[in-house]
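User: Some background: our group keeps a shared notebook of sequences we're curious about, and every so often someone picks one and asks for a predicted structure to add to the entry. Today it's my turn. The entry only has the sequence so far, pasted here. Could you supply the structure so I can complete it?
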Amino acid sequence: MDELMEILEEICPDVDFGEETSLADDKILSSFDILSIISEISDAFDITLTPAEIIPENFNSADAIWDMICRLRN
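Assistant: Of course. Here's the predicted structure to add to the notebook entry:
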């Protein structure tokens, strides 16, 4: 989770990823931010995201992103 938080904070340093729970729904993350996150986590965690995973629910919080990463790694 620490590595994920570093990635998120590097991409969007002004966002409080520890508190926000509606990152995608409230458009705190832009589509470009989400694409950057997908690229970084794909490389860092050796996972492949399919279009089915690229939904707001998976990007609304750091915990949701982490849950998706864990699910895809197993």
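Suggested note for the entry: The chain has one domain: 2-10+21-73. The longest helix spans residues 31-45.
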